[in-house]
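**Sequence, structure tokens**
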Amino acid sequence: MGTTIKAGGLVRGRLAVLARERGLMMRELVAELAGATPTVDELRERARRAEEYVQQHLAPELAESDPALAADTWTAMEACAAPEAPPARALASCRRGSPDGGPGRQYRRHRRR
């Protein structure tokens, strides 16, 4: 038994294109998308398991505050600003990475995982 999902014309059109490209009925596409998209609880559990693995196998000295510090550091790196003042030449090479002074391609490539 199916349920009707109301969506605007643009959304419905996009879903139709995606379904057609995959050779699926729209209901199959929606089921595929729903099954492939983790819930917040699933993401939290995945993060918990990843941190547990890292602590057990890679970095036993990992403290509870380290993942938050790593996230802050990554955000600062993406903005081309280290949490502590880096040498001037490091900032200059970072600014050369892209026309707008943002992170260079070498940083963006690692982010697309």
